Fold this protein.
Amino acid sequence: MDLPVARVEVVTGDITQLHVEAIVNAANTSLLGGGGVDGAIHRAAGPALLEHNRNLGGCQTGLAVVTPSFELQQRGVRHIIHAVGPVWSEKEDATQKLGNTHADVLLASCYHTTLGLCAENHIGTVAFPAISTGVYGFPKERAAKIAVAHTLGWLAEHDLPRRVIFCCYSDADANVYRKVIESRGRWMNQRTGSKP
Ligand code: APR
């Protein structure tokens, strides 16, 4: 199996257009849709997704649930994983070390839970949006560091998912992820002693 950093990729675009086995939604606790990527995914999956989610009873912040992909099936997407990210409120302190705020812990849990659901559901390729960095206001670079650290950590221990795509909605956001991955990859190579 490739090194974890070789199994992640960053793209810019609309996550509903990707040809992957699962796409991750940045949902809210109701699971009944909203704006941003949530709105885009509900539009692409069609009204059956909302009907399905009405019976789920919602989802707690920091957790995720898997649903069918409905009309996205025709694009080869088998599942939608609805992850509920934290709101970055004014109570959060951005000067805190990474991982030390309540929101950091909840965002990390979103990635960990989602990757676990990929393994449980034999999902080989999954695309994440930048969870919580839109309406929920999570600082982009801090969120990218959490997303990358927990994803690379997971991939170092698990064969599934085989590939993870970070789907950003702008080149600027994608460059944040690329910078974080590059520095994280270098750190992991130093730690494992393997040459880049
Ligand atoms: N594809 C990929 N990324 C997208 C798309 C898309 N079609 N649309 C938006 N994004 C990006 C945003 O630019 C942002 O970087 O997804 C990231 C997450 O932004 P939001 O969708 O606003 O999600 P979030 O910040 O987690 O807030 C969730 O917003 O839409 C509501 O119902 C949702 O209440 C929930 C809240």
Summary: The mean pLDDT is 95.
